[in-house]
Amino acid sequence: MRSTLLLASAFCCLVSASPINFGAPNDFPNFKNLVPKATKTPFVESCGTPVQPAATTPLPPPTAGLKLYLIAVGRGTQNYTCADSTATSIPAAVGAVASLYNATCIAGGNPTIFNEIPPAALKVALPNIPQSLVPVGHHYFSNATTPTFDLGSYGFVHAKKVGTVPAPLPANVAWLKLEHETQGEIGTIAEIYRLNTAGGSPPANCSGMAAAFAVQYAAEYWFYS
Predict the structure, then answer these.
(1) Residue 101 in contact with residue 133, Cβ under 8 Å?
(2) pLDDT tens by residue, 70-124
(3) CA distances (Å), 99 to each of 25, 75, 88, 117, in order?
(4) Separation between Cα atoms, residue 85 and residue 130, nearest integer Å
(5) Fewer CB atoms near the end CB (10 Å): N or C, the chain?
(6) Half-sphere CA count of 222, side-chain side, radius 13 A
């Protein structure tokens, strides 16, 4: 019971008196037009000393000189396609869509509770994430291969994958290290880690699957600048 109450308290820390409406997923790429440059001080400066979760097989560390800038919980879908619905076809990843919620101070103040948020968030059906949660931006793919993070006045970055390791549980999508691509970026975000994933992995093959389908997931995103 006590752990349940603590986890509920962690979610309460994400409550905002004036929640922001970021619009539908198809509108995500347009959000960066509302904030022409990154202007805000990172939350992490006043949120203790968060410790990044360790992967079973280590990912490359952050580049020397970078500092932790922001930590978010992402909740959305990993998206896949199938050439046909037979067991001989393998699902192909075609990107992801997720809303990002600021969780920096939870990570710094109570990392044990913070690391329970992704699996707990996975149990909240989309699109029923409480509107009172504090959104900090969106994650989507700007093309078939380019993960994009739109954090409003905290930055806008196109990224590329530079490291991947399996999640501890096979039902959970892989842990990643990403780094920025300079074209079109706003702000100073240089590297991003996707960690402590919950859900998101496709079935082993396409038997009985639709031509396009989505798998619910949640994850921690750690941003360095």
Answers:
(1) yes
(2) 999 999 999 999 999 999 999 999 999 999 998 888 888 888 888 899 999 998 8
(3) 9, 5, 33, 14
(4) 35
(5) N
(6) 25
